[in-house]
Amino acid sequence: MLFRRSLRTSAAVLALLLPFATACGGDAQADSPADVTLRVGATGWKVEEAVLRFAHLDDTPYKVKWSVFQGGDQQLQAVRAGALDLASSSEIPPVFAAADGKPNFKVVAVQRAATLNQEVVVPKGSKVTGIAGLKGKKVGYVQNTTAHYFLYELLKRAGLKWSDIDAKPLLPNDGLAALGGGSIDAFASYGTSVITAHQQGATTVGSGADILSGNFLWSARDSVLKSDARKEAVADLIARITKAYAYVRDGHETEFAKVIAQNTHQPVAQAESDLVAQQKQRPTRVQPVTDAATASQQEVADAFTELGTLKSRLDVKSFWTNALDADLRKVL
Predict the structure, then answer these.
(1) Where is the Solute-binding protein family 3/N-terminal domain (predicted)?
(2) CA 232, CA 84: separation in Å to the nearest integer?
(3) Rounded to an integer, what is the distance from CA 10 to the centroid of its chain?
(4) CA geometry: angle at 296 spanning 293 and 297, to 5°?
(5) Considering only CA atoms, which of 254, 319, 251, 325 is closest in space to residue 288?
(6) Which residues pair with 40 in a beta bridge?
(7) Which of 41, 95, 116, 239 could join 75 in a cystine, given CB atoms 3.0 to 4.6 angstroms apart?
């Protein structure tokens, strides 16, 4: 039942969001920042909102409505349904959101960030010690996300095919429950779900840290890009997040770790250790669209074509744009 319920969730998300999108009237044009309301997605918990508040950069001249999702894939579904204006995700969700050839969004900026806590974990007491040991096992993964991608790449490196495992697509919370309940042998996930799994005694058998590019994409609805005021607001918000993380790195890690710990339910010392490690590996900062970033996502899309998850090759350039570059450089 757990597996079937997880597969139904994505379809349910879209069904629930469609009336919400209509009610929001998100396509209305805005003439000034005061007229703008940005509907922005967050994964796991509202970390971007929290870091802005912590750095005293949440006093935006426009309104921001944050919504929490379990993954970037759900954020892109919400964008497609018209319920979000701006989504943050890894390279993978926009690929699947654009797979029908009719995306209503564009990738407008690239946020460079850490790739830690992207892992394949096994429950306490498991005899599996590496990826090769997953052959024939039930392995949960978060579909159409970084977890899907790095699990596939880890299997290849171990000399295994995707068909060598019994792959089970699960949302993070469902995957945690399945891992703890013994209905799967391993789970590929990210972020808070990996932290929680370790708190429950899970151990790591594979990591996506050196597989993932560290490119996390900001995707905006096409309607947002038709309004100068909305474009300026998006650029300003993304730049503020970069500045907020710079503030955290400037001697405020311990205090922000307390904010993280409160929201992720982990010890403050562990939250601080993770935060320092993440910012050391790859400081969180945004950059305009580049050819290199587009090429990186193309490699990811091609891997999913090879896997057979995408029916045909997708040209990712079709949903990237430089429309925000000038505004972003101005505020950075």
Answers:
(1) 37-249
(2) 17
(3) 15
(4) 95
(5) 325
(6) 66, 86
(7) 41
pLDDT of amino acid 194: 96
Closest Cα to residue 132, out of 162, 107, 155, 109? 155
The shares of helix, strand and coil residues in the chain, as percent rounded to the nearest 5, are 50, 20, 30
Considering the segment(s) 8-114+214-331 as one domain, its CATH architecture is 3-Layer(aba) Sandwich (3.40)
State pLDDT tens for residues 53-104. 999 999 999 999 999 999 999 999 999 999 999 999 999 999 999 999 999 9
Quote the Cα angle for 42-48-53, to 5°.
135
Largest Cα–Cα distance of the chain, in whole Å? 61
Which residue's entry shows tokens 């050819």? 291
Instruction: Share the mean pLDDT of the chain.
Output: 92
Amino acid type, 92:
I
C-alpha–C-alpha distance, residues 175 and 180, integer Å: 8
Q: What does the chain come to in residues?
A: 332
How is residue 300 written in tokens?
């990811």
Structure tokens, 178: 């399945």
For 117-133, give one letter per residue: b (16+ CB within 10 A) or e.
Answer: bbbbbbbeebebeebbb
**Order of strands, edge to edge, in the sheet holding 138-141?**
166-169, 138-141, 186-190, 118-122, 203-207
At 22, the pLDDT band (50, 70, 90 cuts) reads very low
Write out pLDDT tens, residues 96-128.
Answer: 999 999 999 999 999 999 999 999 999 999 999
Residue type, 23: A
User: Taking the domains of the chain in order of start, what are their residue ranges?
Assistant: 8-114+214-331, 118-207
The whole-number pLDDT of residue 14 equals: 45
Residue 30's pLDDT band (cuts 50, 70, 90): low
CATH number of 118-207: 3.40.190.10
